[in-house]
Amino acid sequence: MILGKLRRGRVIVDDASDASTLRNKGYIGKNIGERLSLDIATSADLVRRRKMQVVKGGYPMTLDQLEEAMSPEERKMAVAYHFMRAKGMKPVIRNGRMSASGRRVEIYQDDEMVHFDENISRPFLIAIVDSEGSCLVYSVSRLRMGKRESGRCKVVSNMSITSYLSKLLNEEGMTLASGLKFGADFRIYEGKSSHAKYLMNVGAESLARDIVGRVRIAQSVRKSFIQAIFDKGRNVFTFLEIRWIRL
């Protein structure tokens, strides 16, 4: 079993052969000569797999003790890392940030607010974890609604956000309707279809647990879930599609 020593929030693998084995298996850390310095979340995954024993001051640490040494952010990251690694996604942690499959990963506890940025240029992943160690992963990407990745239309004085959105989508041949029965703000229909293609919520933030429920409902009725972000300063909507990744 590989031996790691906990020092100042990092786990150091002194044995050169063990360090090389970990590198070859995709465990990324900081090289210190032939030694390897791993973040604590990555090390916790190895402990869970019974591939590593972490010691502190010469005494072996249990997984519970290792988790107690983590910050809240590190504990969330450890849950997401272990889940994604087990599902073959090959996550990597560098400088306290995680990526997987070439996309950055934002990690939230299920009772935290998820904040959306209308200026995203590349797809990314959201990992939502709970206190029991469960994890769900979602892809987030900009969506073209009709001919638009972001939407702007002529502003009418005192127009509400709902009226603005309805006018914008009507210009793209889409119709807006209440999404109440699906737990969303709106249903979106394309053309003359009698079946909505999208469920949509409007806002720059949402409770992580609500995203889980809304996306599950949308995908269970064969619809896509859209988070629409309105920039009041520019009178522009940005549309983000959120999809659960089946792993």
Indicate the radius of gyration in whole angstroms.
Answer: 22 Å
Number of helices: 6
Note poorly predicted spans.
none
CATH topology of the largest domain: Trna Endonuclease, Chain: A, domain 1
Strand content: 35-45%
CATH class of the largest domain: Alpha Beta
Tell me the quaternary state. single chain
The coarse silhouette is elongated
List the keywords.
six-stranded mixed beta sheet, single chain, Trna Endonuclease, Chain: A, domain 1, MutS, DNA mismatch repair protein, domain I, 19 strands, 6 helices, alpha+beta, 38% strand, 247 residues, 2 domains, eleven-stranded mixed beta sheet
What does this structure look like?
The longest helix is centred in the N-terminal third of the chain and has 15 residues. Strands 7, 8, 9, 11, 12, 13, 14, 15, 16, 18 and 19 form an eleven-stranded mixed β-sheet that branches. Strands 3-4-2-1-5-6 form a six-stranded mixed β-sheet, with helices on one face. The model has no long low-confidence stretch (mean pLDDT 90). The chain contains six helices and 19 strands. It has 247 residues and is α+β, with helices and mostly antiparallel strands. The relative contact order is 0.11. The protein folds into two domains: 71 residues, MutS, DNA mismatch repair protein, domain I; 104 residues, Trna Endonuclease, Chain: A, domain 1 (3-Layer(aba) Sandwich). The two termini are 29 Å apart. It is elongated, with a radius of gyration of 22 Å. α2 packs across α4.
